[in-house]
């Protein structure tokens, strides 16, 4: 409607410019009136572009000055003594009433239209215009407002219906996602916890063996994470599901992982997969090189950024100095950020370099490592970088 009323006013300005150039070019006031109409129109559309809607005070100023005062000015100083010479000024009132219908509420619109009708009726009476011309103009003035109001109401109503349909679609998608997540958890429980409990109940395995105790510990950790997941975080279920696969893969190889998910933001599926694979390599680094059987994984959101950290309390690593080190893969390389040294742990092979840094760079993220000898390793994955 902002665009429609802009085109409507533009057609009136073109018509007014043609009349002034052809019939009133020797008079100063018609040119001043045309410039004033253009200036007020520019103000209205500048404010509309800034606020993405017609601003009521700017439209009200246009109604008062261009719609109500300009006809009297044309009569008093512009020499408009006939209906032909004042018609182009009156024409601007039609677009003023259309803009008022878009910008104002119902009560203020009635006041604006009544003021425009009274002003234009007085203007045509001053120049002794024909009753048919006066009636046709007032009819156009009123119905410009009516048509604009009806179209605005209709478009708003259609927009509300589209929004409601989108909300219903999102709710249905969320419900399907919850159902799929429940099915996935059911299958995981069936293949792990229930299978273990069934085997123990039937006496087919010895529950006191170290292998069975480790399996029970892994599955207890999985159940704990499952219970801690809040039901109102479906938007990040893709992130959690991908990271959970990494955690379960590490636990299947004998690493105990304490995982926490603190409202991670929703990210595209390929980003969640890349983060999970990088986290898998970080966990493998702990399992193979840290000298500890326990790692900690945390996923959280910070101002729309997904941050995943993998921490261990193992032997750590360094580059020959005793102090801690923070390194990252800079753009286009695997080097250290700030020290110029290699970002690869001296005990970790090339896994972090090729699998963590490279994966994060490939999706527009970054990877950071904090470590010192005897103080463990902290790997931080960020997206976007």
Q: Can you put this structure into words, describing what you see?
A:
The protein is of the alpha+beta class and 385 residues long. Helix content is 64%, strand content 11%. It contains eleven helices and six strands. It has helices at 2-23, 28-51, 56-77, 83-103, 106-126, 131-191, 193-201, 210-228, 237-252, 269-289, 351-362, and strands at 256-262, 294-302, 305-312, 325-328, 366-371, 377-383. It has a six-stranded mixed beta sheet with strand order 1-2-3-6-5-4. Mean pLDDT is 80; it is low at 230-236, 319-327 and 329-350.
Global shape: elongated
What distance separates the N and C termini?
A: 41 Å
Number of strands: 6
Largest beta sheet, briefly?
A: 6 strands, mixed
Helix-strand layout with pairing:
Layout: H1 2-23, H2 28-51, H3 56-77, H4 83-103, H5 106-126, H6 131-191, H7 193-201, H8 210-228, H9 237-252, E1 256-262, H10 269-289, E2 294-302, E3 305-312, E4 325-328, H11 351-362, E5 366-371, E6 377-383
Parallel strand pairs: 1-2
Antiparallel strand pairs: 2-3, 3-6, 4-5, 5-6
Helix pairs in contact: 1-2, 1-4, 2-3, 3-4, 3-5, 4-5, 4-6, 5-6, 6-7, 9-10, 10-11
Protein traits:
six-stranded mixed sheet, 11 helices
Can you describe this structure in just a few lines?
Helix content is 64%, strand content 11%. It is built from eleven helices and six strands.
């Amino acid at each position: 409607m902002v665009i429609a009323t802009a085109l409507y006013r533009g057609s009136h300005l073109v018509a007014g410019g043609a009349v002034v150039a052809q019939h009133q070019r020797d008079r100063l006031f018609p040119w001043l009136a045309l410039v004033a109409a253009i200036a007020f129109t520019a103000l209205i559309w500048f404010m509309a572009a800034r606020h993405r809607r017609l601003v009521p005070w700017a439209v009200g100023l246009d109604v008062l000055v261009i719609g109500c005062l300009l006809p009297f000015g044309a009569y008093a100083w512009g020499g408009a003594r006939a209906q032909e010479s004042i018609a182009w000024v009156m024409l601007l009132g039609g677009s003023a009433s259309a803009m008022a219908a878009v910008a104002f509420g119902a009560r203020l619109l009635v006041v604006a239209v009544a003021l425009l009708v009274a002003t234009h009726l007085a203007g045509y009476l001053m120049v002794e215009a024909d009753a048919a011309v006066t009636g046709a103009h007032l009819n156009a003035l009123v119905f410009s407002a009516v048509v604009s109001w009806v179209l605005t109401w209709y478009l708003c109503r259609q927009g509300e219906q589209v929004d409601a349909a989108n909300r219903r679609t999102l709710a249905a998608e969320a419900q399907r996602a919850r159902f799929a997540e429940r099915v996935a958890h059911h299958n995981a429980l069936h293949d792990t916890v229930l299978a273990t409990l069934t085997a123990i109940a039937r006496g087919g395995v010895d529950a006191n063996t170290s292998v069975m105790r480790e399996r029970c510990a892994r599955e207890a950790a999985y159940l704990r994470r499952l219970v801690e997941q809040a039901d109102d975080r479906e938007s990040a279920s893709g992130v959690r599901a991908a990271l959970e696969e990494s955690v379960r893969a590490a636990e299947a190889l004998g690493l105990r992982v304490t995982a926490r998910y603190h409202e991670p933001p929703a990210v595209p599926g390929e980003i969640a997969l890349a983060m999970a694979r990088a986290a898998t390599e970080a966990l493998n680094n702990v399992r193979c090189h840290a000298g500890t059987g326990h790692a900690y994984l945390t996923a959280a959101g910070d101002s729309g950024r997904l941050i995943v950290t993998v921490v261990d309390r193992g032997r750590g690593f360094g580059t020959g100095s005793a102090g801690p080190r923070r390194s990252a893969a800079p753009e286009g390389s695997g080097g250290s950020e700030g020290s110029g040294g290699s970002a690869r742990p001296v005990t970790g092979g090339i896994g972090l370099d090729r699998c963590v840094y490279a994966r994060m760079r490939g999706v527009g993220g970054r990877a950071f490592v904090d470590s010192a000898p005897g103080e463990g390793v902290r790997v931080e994955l960020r997206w976007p970088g």
